[in-house]
Specification:
The structure is a single chain. By secondary structure, the chain is mainly alpha-helical. The protein is built from four helices and two strands. Among the domains are: 40 residues, no CATH class; 57 residues. It is 56% helix and 5% strand.
Length: 164
């Protein structure tokens, strides 16, 4: 039985027992409810889920560490590429070569143009990209916690499973 099926069975059992308890002569038998859940293997299924979740969380940490390691390696390789290109550029400039051939490779100094902004405040608004305003949820949360009323915002309480 899957956890989904167990959840459905537990809800049906709870509904049945609470409907029976609505009758003034009947009481809700909490022990019978727990015994029935135990009989359908809820504890074992939850233990299995917890084990798989813990394993997946561990895998996630390993993957995060590998991503960090590879990101550092990529940065190191990029720095090496930049240093080597700079060395070739400096050689070509010093040798007064705009282009040259070596083996099957050709080298040339490429010229391009880029815009440098010297004073952003002097740029006319026609050259500005409009940006939509962004909501600062951290500031709103802080204000709501301090008792402030902010139209269009409220604190909501969320629930999640914690397995230790």
């Amino acid at each position: 039985m899957t956890l989904y099926e167990m959840t459905k069975a537990a809800q049906e059992l709870y509904d049945f027992l609470t409907q029976s308890a609505d009758d003034e002569t009947a009481d809700f038998d909490e022990q019978a409810y727990k015994d029935t859940l135990e009989a359908i293997g809820v504890d074992e299924k939850l233990v299995s889920y917890a084990q798989v979740l813990k394993s997946m969380e561990g895998d996630k940490l390993v993957i995060d560490a590998e991503i960090e390691r590879l990101t550092k390696k990529k940065k190191s390789i990029s720095s090496g590429i930049d240093r080597m290109k700079e060395a070739v550029y400096n050689f070509l400039k010093l040798s007064k070569l705009d282009k040259t051939q070596a083996g099957t490779f050709s080298f040339r100094i490429n010229k391009s143009q880029a815009v440098s902004i010297t004073n952003e405040k002097l740029i006319p608004s026609a050259y500005m990209k409009p940006q939509p305003p962004k909501i600062n949820k951290l500031e709103i949360k802080k204000m709501l916690k301090s008792g402030a009323k902010i139209p269009g915002a409220k604190l909501t309480e969320n629930e999640s499973v914690v397995i230790k």
